[in-house]
Amino acid sequence: MGAKELKAAILQEAVSGKLVPQIASEGNARDLLEEIKKERLSHGFANSYGICSEKGKKSKSSDLRSKSQIRVTTEITEDEIPFDIPEN
Fold first, then answer.
1. pTM
2. Which strand (E) or helix (H) includes residue 4?
């Protein structure tokens, strides 16, 4: 087996989840995706379907950028800025 074949075999094993032991208490990929989706929405991100956390409705801009992520903007207070931005 050559280097390319070995690399392909290792990648296939990795994608299949066979390189590390699977722990049932960690859940599966679907559970993880749902958890990530909830966390992203709680932080003000819209998902690829354009559902915003603020209104729970479809975003109008989702029609134009349905494949990209949309960041819901919020105001930043002075105490949230950790340092001054240099001019150069």
1. 0.35
2. helix 3-15
